Amino acid sequence: MSIKKLLYVNRKAPYGTVYALESLEVVLIGAAFEQDVTLLFMDDGVFQLAKGQNTTAIDNKNFSPTYMALGDYEVNKIYVDQQSLDERGLSLDDLQHLVWEDEDEDYAEKDSIIIVDRAQIADLMEENDVVLSF
User: Tell me, which fold does domain 5-133 have in CATH?
Assistant: First the structure.
């Protein structure tokens, strides 16, 4: 059986561990090989998409601009858990504006981020063939 749908669950803060960067790299590799990639950000993982990240004080490379390239890799299903945003005092406006271009609609730019609740997250996990948690 071939893998049809991959869900990458991002639960960790962007810096302090390798999880966020490793997930992003694996997502880009999968997308480059035309896998059906879906991303979910929950818990502290929502900070991975936060605007204006500055890593100078922690002496780490800021890889957050790489998320802007996801649309170029046809990664356009990016789900963010509303409860995780609420618990951290964040809203959609605090996140990077991620978009993709829809070829079927004359390359119209469309939003990639979809806000979901916990019931929708359960459905996402159920409808994917493989769920990878980072």
Answer: Hypothetical Protein Ychn; Chain: A, (3.40.1260)
